[in-house]
């Protein structure tokens, strides 16, 4: 099934969305919010699924037109956002460009950082940031939303804990990264709010494309309406979501609603383009000696979408504009 | 006023606690949970405060004995936990012990990492971890809980956003830290669940001890009932909470219920002891050439408390035992 949250209140209002993304129906009789549904998944899943089936058959009396612009993130605020960097050939490429060795452990031990989860942006909300000089970049990723995952869950038993999948735009401030990472404590200021696709879908929606804990379809990313990349998310993903979950829960329980990201989707095949500007700049540098594509400028737009084999949008599109954060907003 | 959450449901049940920590009263007529109160602080504060005044005067009809063992963390799950490292002389000491230079920027630019916030432990809950060899350590800290903080809020305007203060035990797995930090993405597996004091208090409870965005009282830490350290949290704190909040919100809004930590409380004066084992080991190494105090072992207990000038506990005590996380729990 497909679920979304309307922009109402801090946690949104849960709606079930039809497979073709045309219709929606409020789920408040089952769960008021997606977090509430995740907190009580075993009780809510059947009712939500029954509503989804009725909606797809056109039998939902209270259905209304689904509008992605009215969507908050599926989880407008979440309790955890753990972002991996599972396309290791991307890391290798970036390190090569700056002449850094590739520690062999990077191929066997996942990279993961703790991200900010208290405010995910909806799919059409503007990306508001104060300074272009920060080197504003998008990163197209796949993310899973888990149920409760007990500490110590192994890779072999992790996958049944995946409740939903969605797309995310993990915005990064590239020019703040080097100084921040040099301090040793990881990303903080260099990782502002992440944005999410309009709907999150259960794994069964993906059919044979969800295999081996990977989503085997191209992620299409557009910058200012020009195709920027379309790498297949199932190709060159060194660690599957099973492994990422096991990594995340080694020394902690993961509570329901934990979001775990793949890291920027990336294929070795250059012809598939890139899901972030930094990767394209890296390839430019390696191929021509100069990184010519600039980072985002105010007014730029970024769009991310994944289509099934019939060309139908699975998650709806992330479609955002970068705008300058204004000082006046500070007085609110 | 003083607020706590009883262990009921995922978010606890909000109670108001008397100043002397003897009595409590359910606040469900005002806000069911502390998160709900923080989400609507302007509407809830007056009612909670009125209940607190009645409780202190012994006029609360439904008051009951306050039991810290029944407490969850004030926020059993939160949307953000941003932990600073504001006692820079502690960092300098640790770096000196391993022969590392101290970057001058550490004195002017706060260190902060994004921590896991989806499961804070209550004050008397056991610390469950699977492996002593991870180098299990406690860290005694002060933390503030904020309301909504707009992106770009400056140090000068940050302090009114502080809603509550509490103590935290930021457990660290010292032997996992070096490899994790070497990967460059910061802490993840090396930072398991953090524990909180029974009550969180509004700044006015601290009187003249809350000054200059710092809490000027000793934090008393006991390992196996032996005093381990009692440094004054207002001494040698290089960055106040105003600066830490401004650092955290440079490129993001902070949503209500964000927890911001001071980092391990530490004084240059060695006679005040330490709030973590790592610091004591560092001093042993510098003074004697050998770090002799071991990290925690299963069965060890740690206690943290802060007393006012009359010897009365302000936040109640964190009082935890370290226990081995059992494989059987994985089947739950």
Automatic annotation (TrEMBL), chains A, B:
Question: Where does the Fumarylacetoacetase-like C-terminal domain start and stop, copy by copy?
Answer: 81-310
Question: Which SUPFAM superfamilies does the UniProt entry name for this protein?
Answer: FAH
| Record has Hydrolase as a keyword | yes
For this protein, the record's Pfam families field holds: FAA_hydro_N_2 (PF18288), FAA_hydrolase (PF01557)
This protein's superkingdom? Bacteria
Provide the Fumarylacetoacetase N-terminal domain boundaries.
1-77
Keyword terms of this UniProt record: Hydrolase
Any GO MF annotation of the entry: hydrolase activity
Keyword Signal annotated: no
Under PANTHER family, the record lists: BLL6422 PROTEIN, FUMARYLACETOACETATE HYDROLASE
* Protein name (Swiss-Prot/TrEMBL): Fumarylacetoacetate hydrolase family protein
What is the organism field in this record? Oceanimonas smirnovii
Its taxonomic placement starts with:
Bacteria, Pseudomonadati, Pseudomonadota, Gammaproteobacteria, Aeromonadales
């Amino acid at each position: 099934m497909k679920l979304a949250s309307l922009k109402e209140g801090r946690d949104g209002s849960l709606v079930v969305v039809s497979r073709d993304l045309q219709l929606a129906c409020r789920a408040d009789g089952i769960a008021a919010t997606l977090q509430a549904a995740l907190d009580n998944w075993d009780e809510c899943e059947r009712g939500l699924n029954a509503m989804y089936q009725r909606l797809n058959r056109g039998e939902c009396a209270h259905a209304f037109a689904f509008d992605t612009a009215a969507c908050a993130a599926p989880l407008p605020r979440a309790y955890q956002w753990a972002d991996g960097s599972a396309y290791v050939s991307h890391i290798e490429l970036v390190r090569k460009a700056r002449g850094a060795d590739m520690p062999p452990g990077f191929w066997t031990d996942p990279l993961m950082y703790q991200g900010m989860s208290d405010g995910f942006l909806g799919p059409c909300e503007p990306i508001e940031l104060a300074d272009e000089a920060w080197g504003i970049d998008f990163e197209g990723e796949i993310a899973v939303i888990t149920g409760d995952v007990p500490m110590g869950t192994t890779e072999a038993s992790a996958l049944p804990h995946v409740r939903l999948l969605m797309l995310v735009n993990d915005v990064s401030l590239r020019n703040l990264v080097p100084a921040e990472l040099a301090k040793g404590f990881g990303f903080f200021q260099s990782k502002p709010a992440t944005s999410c696709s309009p709907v999150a879908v259960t794994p069964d929606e993906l059919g044979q494309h969800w295999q081996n804990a990977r989503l085997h379809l191209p992620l299409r990313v557009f910058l200012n309406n020009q195709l920027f990349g379309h790498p297949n998310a199932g190709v060159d993903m060194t660690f599957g979501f099973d492994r990422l979950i096991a990594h995340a829960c080694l020394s902690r329980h993961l509570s329901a609603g934990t979001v775990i990201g793949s890291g920027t989707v990336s294929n070795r095949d250059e012809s598939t383009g890139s899901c972030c500007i930094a990767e394209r700049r890296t390839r430019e540098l390696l191929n021509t000696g100069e990184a010519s594509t600039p980072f985002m400028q105010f007014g730029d737009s970024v769009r991310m979408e994944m289509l099934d084999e019939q060309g139908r949008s699975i998650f709806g599109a992330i479609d955002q504009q970068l705008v300058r954060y204004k000082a006046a907003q500070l007085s609110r």
